[in-house]
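Figure S7 source data.
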Amino acid sequence: MILKVKQIGLSIEVEKELLNKLLAVGKTYYPKEFGGFLIGYYSEDNKHLHITDTILPKKYQAYKHSFERSTKGIENVLIKFYTENPRKIYIGEWHTHPDNSPIPSATDISAINTIINSKNTSIENPVLLIIGYSKTTVDFGFYVWFENKLYKYE
Ligand SMILES: [Zn+2]
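Tokens for the predicted zinc ion complex:
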């Protein structure tokens, strides 16, 4: 599927298979949150992003209403992706909201600031995917941090 933020002219593309995979992995941690890193590549004008893969964290702390991952141990996996395709880079993160909607919490927003200010994994426009799910519903919320604001892809 393709989603857009009209105001800033950005779009993302992601395959249903990847989303289903993230949901399936996330559900195995129910009722706790779970998540990981997103890998993808940008178009030459940096306006279009294709999200292709995930890297699951090796170290993390998962709770009912928060999820903290460590970047320890994922460097080699990132290098592997980059070696296969030098355009493939770390572009953001995903996590689940079990029994909840995919709306970023205050913690999620401060986590984005950590990403932007990180020495090792600094990216300017991180993408945040939140998967809100319950027994009967699933809702994927994609966001991008752009010029100090969080925008939702529609
Ligand atoms: Zn969250």
